[in-house]
User: What shape does this take?
Amino acid sequence: MAASYESPTEYIQHHLTFFTHPVKEGEFWKLNVDTLLTTLVLGALAFGFMWVVTRKASQGVPSKTQAFVELSIDFVNDQVKSIYNGTSRIVAPIALTTFILVLFMNAMDFLPVDIMSSFFSALGFHEFRMVPTADVNTTFALALAVFGLMIFYSIRIKGLGGWVHELFCAPFGSNPLLWPFNLLFNAVEYLSKPLSHSLRLFGNMYAGEIIFLLLGMWAATGLVGTIFGAVLHLGWSIFHILIVVLQAYIFMMLTVVYIAMAHEHH
Assistant: This one.
């Protein structure tokens, strides 16, 4: 498929172009329709799958699917209990939801990019990206949602006055001369969390997408290149399974860590 493009640059640029909502020239806001549609479909599939499993759950001998889901839930619960010492009962469900959703979005990287591009082109979508977490808007949205939960729990546990007092009086002390330094220090700490949370996931998935495209260009060099590229593609796909799962796990764990940190008093 890569042979139909005039240059490798054109091939990569085409596959890295979002399908955006038509906007007037010069407008700042754009809507990545492909990211939104894919995320909605994956969310429905992921949580629909969990809903079906829970509806069919029985107390007797579980099916293989039920056993897998129960093991996954127990694993997430154990991870949350090892980090979070608060009393909220929704932290574990938040962690499980985050892990499942991010895992499904990451796994879209395994779909053959050229085949999917031809499929969507036949439907009239000439640009369509299939990996939502390779869109920095998605990872920032997820990270900002976690950031909002962190602020919510900070105010809930410490009270609004206690949280504001902590912003101005920790970690260097409550002397008014130190308030600007405390506020600056806390601002850097707060802002660095959603930045690192989002960019870590985005960077890994974007890099994986680029590598798949580079391997796909071997098909333009002939039969030998196609075979060699297919072997490399298979090897990278097997290794990428680890990246897909690991990045979902890291994103989930950081979510729990940030919520747990919101309960700490300085």
In short: The chain has one domain: 2-261. Helices lie at 8-15, 33-55, 64-83, 91-107, 113-122, 136-169, 179-216, 223-261. The two ends are 58 Å apart (CA to CA).
